[in-house]
Design goal:
1 helix, 11% helix
Length: 71
C-alpha cells in the first residue's frame, strides 16, 4: 500500500451503532466504504461487549485502554 497516495487512508472503522455494539467486520467495511480491513483489536465478548485497547479516530480518543488485573 502506498500511504503517500492521496486516495489512500488508513484508520479505524467503528460500528455505526457505537464502539460497544457488535457488528461484523464486513458490515463495518461496507458502511464505511472501505475496500479492505483487518480486525486488529481484542474484545470482551460478554454482555456488554467492549474493546480492550485504546481507540483513536481523526486525532480524538474514542475509548481509552481498559486496565485489567490478572490474578
Amino acid at each position: 500500500v502506498n500511504l503517500n497516495d492521496e486516495y489512500t487512508k488508513v484508520g479505524p472503522v467503528i460500528s455505526e451503532n457505537g464502539v460497544s455494539n457488535r457488528a461484523t467486520l464486513s458490515s463495518m467495511l461496507k458502511t464505511s466504504g472501505a475496500v479492505a480491513g483487518i480486525n486488529g483489536d481484542f474484545f470482551y465478548m460478554g454482555d456488554p461487549t467492549y474493546t480492550y485497547g485504546t481507540l483513536i479516530k481523526d486525532g480524538k480518543m474514542i475509548k481509552r485502554l481498559l486496565k485489567l488485573k490478572f490474578y
